[in-house]
Automatic annotation (TrEMBL):
Residues the entry annotates as binding FAD: 51, 109, 303
Parts forming coiled coils: none
Family indicated by similarity: Belongs to the aromatic-ring hydroxylase family. TetX subfamily.
Necessary cofactors: FAD
Binding site for NADPH: 44
Keyword annotations: Cytoplasm, FAD, Flavoprotein, Monooxygenase, NADP, Nucleotide-binding, Oxidoreductase
The reaction(s) this protein catalyses: a tetracycline + NADPH + O2 + H(+) = an 11a-hydroxytetracycline + NADP(+) + H2O
EC number: 1.14.13.-
Gene3D superfamilies, sorted: FAD/NAD(P)-binding domain (3.50.50.60)
Species of the source: Streptomyces orinoci
Protein's UniProt name: Flavin-dependent monooxygenase
Domain of life per record: Bacteria
Amino acid sequence: MHSTHAPRIAIVGAGLGGLACARVLQLHGRPVTVFEREASTGARPQGGSLDIHAGTGQLALRAAGLLDRFRALARPESQEWRLLDPATAAVLPVAGPPAHDDDSPEIDRGQLRGLLLESLAEGTVRWDRAVAGVTPLENGTWRLLFDDGSTEEADLVIGADGAWSRIRPAVSDATPGYSGVTFIETGLDDCDTRHPALARLVGNGTMLASAGSKALLAQRNSEGRIRVYIAFRAPQNWHLAARVPLDDTAAVRAHLLSMFEGWDESLLDLIRHNDGGFIDRRVFVLPAPHTWEHVPGITLLGDAAHLMPPVGLGANLAMLDGADLAQALLNESTVDDAIRAYESLMLPRSARAAQDCAKLLDELVPPEGS
């Protein structure tokens, strides 16, 4: 962008995509501000382990000048993928992990986010600044409205604020819908010492056992932690029909154990021995493909643009979106040209990815009777 005044760029959301965009812009001397509703970087747990693909997430990290630092933190051994027989826990022959390329080392999401945050100039991220919405101003600029009643103005607003984006309604009336699949997340700490048999069962990377429309996934994280996902098809409010209070760990555990009755005891131990409670993660998705008519001065990236099932592509695509949008802003002569160039790249790519992810979810947890 070659104008004399650098545009005021506001990124809403300090997730991986928004931070990747901010980092690439700053690397090239462009001013940018990130507004984040959470109070601080450690306000909540940052989720599990991510496999960062050579053709997407790693490209973004290279553009951000962070690929070597990522490699120093990543765990290539965690690419291991094992499929287990639900009835016997025997290891089955498997062609390879879904949606992976050969070079997809794992890293904890919190570590990756930390790497991006540390790379930004101090004060880039404004914490505890929850954006409630945006309104267009006459000259093609936008006003951000914050939960506390304050406002800011920007020449470009980038909605990087996830599934329930407050920015998305400015370009699209699409809202996420329930996919029919629920993931219950739990985990075990210090596995190698406290649960060596389970550590061996899971191996170095990701373990999957599935039967009918139910699946059990366990994923090695750093520092001996194993994260467990119990996946099944169910109505959105399954816990009400089952009379299971989600905050009652014992009740959730008993319900899950009854659902998985007949599975091998060692696999059921992943449900029995969890540390902490169970987190209900119903899988919501945006319509695929999700597209919109170009709106000047505003765009979306990551889950705000293309929320899809959590099968290994979302974080990679969000970072690539962020890097591509930053690159377009550096290359094109106006903000508007940059948005158009970025959207013409991102929208078809995310449409293909959303279809792939929907297919993978159906393979992982097939619809009843399919």
